[in-house]
Amino acid sequence: MDIVSGRTKVICIFGSPIAQAMSPSLHNASFQQLGVDCVCIAADVRPEGLKDAVQGARVMGFSGLIVTMPDKTGILQYLDELSPAAELMGAVNTVVRDGDRLIGHNTDGAGFMRAVALAGVDVIGKKMTLIGAGGAGSAIYTQAALDGVKEIAVFNIRDGFFDATARRLAEVADRTGMQLKLYDLADKTELAKQISDSALIADATKVGMPPLDNESNVAKQWLVAGQAVADTVYVPRVTKLLREAQEVGAIPISGLGMLLWQAAIAEQLWFGLEMPVPYIQDRFFGDH
Length: 288
Description:
This protein has helices at 23-34, 50-60, 84-89, 108-118, 135-147, 162-176, 188-196, 240-247, 255-271, 277-285, and strands at 9-15, 38-44, 64-67, 81-82, 94-98, 101-105, 127-131, 151-156, 179-184, 200-203, 228-231, 251-253. It has 288 residues and is α/β, with parallel strands linked by helices.
């Protein structure tokens, strides 16, 4: 809406740093297009201030929250309820107000799966290989398992969180009945092997965005025509991984779809409305 009044609802994004966040621009354009009397604002909230920030949102009657790094896991303890996906992921990126209760959701994985489906790719009951098990990666493998992707090979660097990630994958496998296994990303022979018979390959790391825009975690010769290849990076729109996927006849899926659809699903949760995704894409990203 053009004028903020005493009836205007508020959605706030928590995170730090927050100046570069696109969410306020995307959602405010959507709210205006839909005629929703709501504004989306941003607040630089660090972990040490998160408890007070959530309490402030309660007191001020915010309709919902967007949560980004580094607050996605820390906020769980301050909410009244979690969706099954958010609980299993151990991370929240969307908070919905229901009366006096704040309910945490995670729309990242659902946004990714929506983008894959809209690209005409059916991965349900099939196998996927996922590179990266961090925030975006954990949301993707959890939602994929919940949706019925039969087998998920997850590759991650062997860092201090590797064993904890293996335990989380085992928990997701136990809860969903799907097959999930963690591999060391340094094992390129195993990575090539798992990719060879996967219906979908997804990269949920920062490789592909500047200054790593001339790099890819996947060698071109590992890809197979007809496979779907998805990236979570959306700047540049066509990463090296997606360019090489297209060159071998695979189906490239840009990270822009995940960005837009996780936001659209959040608006459904807050207000039960459909974000005008084509309008938002054209306004902020053009058709290139």
